[in-house]
């Protein structure tokens, strides 16, 4: 794994060019969306929040994006 501190600007551009920062339309139907406000409120209120849900419900993709959007 490369040392991030040593990455050149060119290398960073390459890394970021491989990631899509656009929200996908198909995320609207994920089960986790029903708990959006509750999850963000708990993340704000408590130092640790455990989110449990079935595979594919959006825990890994949606919650981090909500946190970034809410910051």
TrEMBL record:
Q: Which GO terms describe its molecular function?
A: helicase activity; RNA binding
Report the domain of life of the source organism: Eukaryota
Q: What is this protein called?
A: Spindle E
Q: Which Gene3D superfamilies is this protein grouped with?
A: P-loop containing nucleotide triphosphate hydrolases
Q: Which InterPro entries match?
A: P-loop_NTPase
């Amino acid at each position: 794994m490369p040392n991030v501190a040593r990455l050149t600007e060119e290398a960073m551009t390459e890394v970021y060019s491989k990631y899509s920062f656009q929200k996908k339309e198909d995320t609207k139907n994920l089960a986790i969306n029903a708990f959006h406000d509750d999850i963000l409120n708990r993340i704000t209120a408590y130092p640790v929040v455990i989110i449990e849900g079935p595979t594919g419900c959006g825990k890994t993709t949606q919650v981090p994006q909500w946190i970034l959007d809410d910051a």
